[in-house]
Amino acid sequence: MLLIECPHCGPRAEIEFRCGGEAHIARPADPSALDDNAWAEFLFYRSSPKGVHAERWNHAHGCQRWFNALRDTMSDRILATYPAGAARPNITTIEAAR
Amino acid sequence: MTTAFRLPKGGRIDRTKPIVVRFNGREVPAFQGDTAASALLANGIHFVGRSFKYHRPRGIMSHGSEEPNALLDVDRGGNRREPNNRATVVEAFDGLALKSQNHWPSLTFDVGEINDRLGAIFVAGFYYKTFMWPPKFWTSVYEPIIRRAAGLGQAPTAPDPDRYAQRHAHAEVLVVGAGPAGIAAALVASEDPNKRVILCDEQAEPGGALLHDVTSEIDGVPTSAWVKAAIETLDARENVTILPRTTAFGYFNHNHVALAERITDHLRVPLTGLPRERLWQVRAGRVILATGAHERPLVFADNDRPGIMLAESLRCFVNRYAVLPGRQIVIATTGASAYRAAIDLKAAGASVTVVDLRLEGDCGTELVAAVHAGVEVLTNHTVIGSHGRQRVTGLIVAKLDGNGAVGAPRVLACDCAGMSGGWTPAVHLFSQSRGKLRFDSGLDAFVPGASVQAETSAGSCRGVYDLAATIADGAKAAGGSRAVAASPTYTSFQPARIMPAPPGQKPVKAFVDFQNDVTAKDIKLAVAEGFTSIEHVKRYTTTGMATDQGKTSNMNALGLLAGQLATEIPAVGTTTFRLPYTPVTFGTFAGPNRGDLFDPARVTPIHDWAVANGAKFEDVGLWKRAWYFPARDETMHQAVARETKAVRTSAGIFDASTLGKIEVTGADAAEFMNRIYTNAWTKLEVGRCRYGLMLKEDGYVFDDGVAARLSPTLFHVTTTTGGAPRVLAHMEDFLQTEWPDLKVFLTSITEQWAVIAVQGRRAREMIAPLIEDIALDDAAFPHMAVRTGHIAGVPCRLFRVSFTGELGFEINVPADYGQAVWEAVYESGRRFDVTPYGTEAMHVLRAEKGYIIVGQETDGTVTPDDLGLSGLVGKAKRDFVGKRSLVRPDVVATGRKQLVGLRTGDLSLILDEGAQIVADPNQTVPMKMIGHVTSSYMSANIGRSIALALVVDGRRRMNERLHVTTPNGFAQATVVEPVFLDPEGVRLHA
Ligand SMILES: [Zn+2]
C-alpha cells in the first residue's frame, strides 16, 4: 500500500485516496471549438510512461481535496505531491528526485 | 510406544510439564516446548504422510517453516480443525490431535501408492498431456479423480469458532527475524529511545538458529545466555515491541509489511476473548531483513524416504528438543556445516558416518574436528540411492575415482540420514520488496542486490554465515557496530546439482521439489521438450509452486536447469517470490469482517417502523430498503399487486430516505448547476423543482434526479440512491479542479433528511391536516414546486413531485423526526386506507409511466437521446459537462439502441431483465442481437406484463414484432411507446 503525502493532511495510507488518472489535462475552455479528433484526444488519450508520471489524487476519506502527485511508475515511489493548480515540479527523472 | 528417542537431559523442552498428543489416534507422550515434529520423533515416528502425486511414504525433513513433507491435519478441539499444517511449526500441547493426510484407507497401506509405479503418467506436464480426451471428461471424470488422488488435506466444514484481529502499527525500524543478526540490529536500533522498534520472529521464542547451537560461545558465554541477555535488554526498552510467533509474510510498497501473529494456537485452552491470530500492517521507516537461510537437500535416487532429513535439522532436534532422530546416522554432504550436526549427534550418543562429496583436501577444520569427535568420515564419496520403504534402512554410497567416475556401490546401514547441499539465503521478502537479486557464485546463491525501498538485509539472508560476522552485520544494518568474539562457524560448501551416479542407472526418482513430487528427470524432460525459461519450466513441472514456495528446492531446480541448458545460473535467472512467505489463514485476512460486520448496513430513520410492520427488505448498495409489505401470508407478487393498485386508486406511503441529497450553495450555485446538468437552471424560480440529467464528459448518462431551488443561492439536489457518493465526488472534482473560481460549496445531506413519499389522488388530503403554514391547493403549490414550512410541528422541505405518475408529495424532515412524522402521516391517511409500499412496487409504478432508473435503463453507454430525453438537453447552453460528446460521430449516427416499451404476446409472461432481443428467430446462429430487456414486471394496474428495453433504432420500430430469449425459447413481443399508463399526465394534477 502506498504512503501518500496529502499536501493538506500529511502522509496517509493509500486506502484513504482515490486516483483520478493523469494530471495536467485541462478541460478546453470552449469544447465546441474542438474538432472530433481534438475532443477525442482530450477525452480518451492518456500517457502511460515508464518513469515519472503526474497523477491526480483525491483524499477521499480525508480532506476530500484533489491534488497532484509525481509517481515513478517503475518503483511506485512518489517523488512529490502538490496542490491542484500548482505548477508541476521540475522532476522528469527518478535521479532528479534524489 | 515409548519416548525411546528422548535424551535424558538437555533441550529447551519443559520436562516438568509432560503432555500427550495423539497421532492417528495413538498416544504420543511429549513435553511442553515440543513441536508436533519433535514429539513424533521422540517416539520414533518418522513416517507421517504420503506425497502429493506418487503417494510415497514421507517423513519429517526439516525443523522449520520450510517443511515440504510433514503436512498434518491438526485438531485443537472445539471445531478447531485445520489441514496442511507443517508438523515442524505446530507447537504441541496436551490433547492436540494430529492426523496424517493424502492416503486411503490408511497411512501404512495406501491404495494411491500405485501412482508411484505408474510414474510415467505423472511426468512433467502431465496435466497437459494425459486425460485430454474427450474434453468433457475433464470436468466430469478426470479432474475429480485427480483432485481426490493428488491432493492435500480435507478442508474443515464447520464455521471457524475463532476470532481474528487486525491492527496497524508504525515503527522507525522493523526487524524481521530474531536470530543473531536480527537481535543485534534491534539492540542497536533501539538505543535511541525515540525510535520505535518492532522485532518479529516466526518461532515461539527469539534466537533463531542459536536456539539449537549448544556449542558456540559469544564473547565467552554460551549463545543461549547471549540471547537471554539481549532479549532482557530489549524487553526493558519501552520503545521495543517483540513479537514472537509472528511471520512477516508480505512486503509491499513504501515499507508496508504485513505480519501474521499466531496468538492461541499453542494453547490448550485459550483465554476467553483472545483472538486466534492478529494481522499487523506495519509501516516502517526502515526495514531490516534478518530472515536467515535454508539448507538444501541433496538430489539422489530415493532421497525422500522417511528418516532422511536435512543435516541441520538433525542438529536442531538433538540440541533444541533433546530428541535423537536415529541411533545409526549417515550424513551425506557437500559442505562443512553438516559436520557440526555430526559432532553434536555423536556427542548425544548416536553412531555417525559422514559421506562427503568433497575431496579431503577441499575440506576445512571441520574434518579434523569430526574425526577427533569419533565420527567416521568418507570423503570423495557420492550417494546414489537409499533402501527402505516406510523408513530409511540404508544409504547406497560409492567412492569416486580420480576422474570422478563412480566406483562400486556399497550400503551403509542406518535408521536415519542427513543431507546437506549447502545453503540458500531466504531472500523472499527482499524480492517481494522489488529489490533485484544478484547471483554470488562464491556463495552459489542469489543474494540481495540494490534495495529499492528503505530496507537493509543482514546476516545469512544475504550470505553472511559466520556467527560473529552475522552479529556485526546486523548491527551495521541498524546504523551501528558491534564487534563480538564468537566460535567459528563451518560455512563453506561445494554445490552439487545432482549427486554423481553410475551411468545407465535404471530410472529413479530423485526428488527436487518434495512437496510437489517433482524429480530431476521431470526437469530434464521439460528441457528436452523445449522449455528453457525458468518461469515456463516452473509451471510445466510445477517445481517451486507448492505451498512451501520451493524454499528447499528452488536452487537445486535452477542448478539442474542451468546444467541441462549448459549455461550458468545467472543466465537462467530466478522466479518471482510472491506473498505469502508461509501460508496465512483466511481468518487473518478477514479479521472481524464476517457475519454482521462483513459490510456496514445503512438503515433509514423509518427502518424500525418497516420492521415492525412486517416488511421484507432488499439490499440496495449498503442500504436495507423495505422491499414489500406482505399482509398475512401474501406472496411477493400478491403484495406488490395490492400495493401498486392502492397507489393508483387512493394513496400509498413510501420511505424514500435513501435518496442521495446534496446541498449546492453559494453565489455561483446556479451557474454550477448549469454546467453540471444538461438542462438550464439559472432561470429556475425560487420555489420550483426541475428534473435534471447529469452526464459524464463522454456524453453518457451518469445520474438523474430532482433538484429544488430554495433560494437564489441554495439548491437541494437529489441523486439516485446508489449514486450519491459518486455524484458528490464528480461535482467536487469539477468544482475543485476545473472551476475553482466558482463560489460554491457542496454538502452531503443524505443522512440529515428523512424523505416520506405520499403518492395517489388522496395525497393532498392526507397531509393537509398536518400542515398549517403551506398552501397546498394546485394553484398555490403546483406540480414541480417546493415549499418550506412545518408538518406535524416539524420543519420540512415539501416537494410536490412524483415518481409514480400520481399526485404526490415528498416530505423532507430532519432525520431524527423521520419516524414520528411518518407515523403522523400514516395515521392521517388511514381514513383513505393509505398503503405502505416498498421498492418493488415503486419500480413497477415508475415503469408503468416509463420513468427510467439510471443503472437499469442505462449502463454507461446510453445518451439522453437514446432514452428519448433529448428535450432535457439545453441546446442553447454554450457548455455543460458532456455536451461536446453529444455530437461525436458515433453518438449522432443511426443504429443506436433506444428506449422502447415491449408488450409480450402472452399477457402473463414476465420477460427476464437482461434477455436478448432478435428480429428474426429463424436466422442462423450466432444470431444478430439487436437489444435487451432493461426492466420487466407484472402490472396489476394495466392487467398484463410490461417491459422496457433498449433496441437498435427502437423508435423507428413501433408496432414491430420482435423476439426475446426466455429459458424456454423465444417469446414474441411488440414494440410500443415506453409509457404504459396515462401518457397525458392527467393524474399528476389530480
Ligand atoms: Zn487530505
Fold and architecture overview:
The complex is a heterodimer of chains A (98) and B (990). With 98 residues, chain A is mainly β. In chain A, 13% of the residues lie in helices and 34% in strands. In chain A, strands 3-4-5-6 form a 4-stranded antiparallel beta sheet, with no helix packed on it. A two-stranded antiparallel ribbon of chain A has the order 1-2. Chain A is globular. Chain A starts with a strand and ends with a helix. The mean pLDDT of chain A is 93. Chain B has 990 residues and is an alpha+beta fold. Among the domains of chain B are: 14-130, 2Fe-2S iron-sulphur cluster binding domain, sarcosine oxidase, alpha subunit, N-terminal domain (Ubiquitin-like (UB roll), Roll); 297-421, FAD/NAD(P)-binding domain (3-Layer(bba) Sandwich); 883-989, Beta Barrel (Elongation Factor Tu (Ef-tu), domain 3), CATH 2.40.30.110. In chain B, strands 8, 9, 12, 13, 14, 15 and 28 form a 7-stranded mixed beta sheet that branches. Classes of the chains: A mainly beta (98), B alpha+beta (990). The A-B interface holds A 1-3, 13-14, 18, 20, 26-27, 30-32, 34, 36, 39-40, 43, 56, 58, 60, 64-66, 75-78, 84-85 and B 168, 252-256, 281, 283, 434, 452, 697-698, 729, 732-733, 736-738, 740, 878-879, 883-885, 888-889. Bound molecules: zinc ion. The site of zinc ion (ZN) has 7 residues of chain A, from loops.
Name the descriptors.
heterodimer; A: mainly beta; Folate-binding fold; globular; B: 990 residues; alpha+beta; Ubiquitin-like (UB roll); Elongation Factor Tu (Ef-tu), domain 3; 7-stranded mixed beta sheet; 6-stranded mixed beta sheet; 49 strands
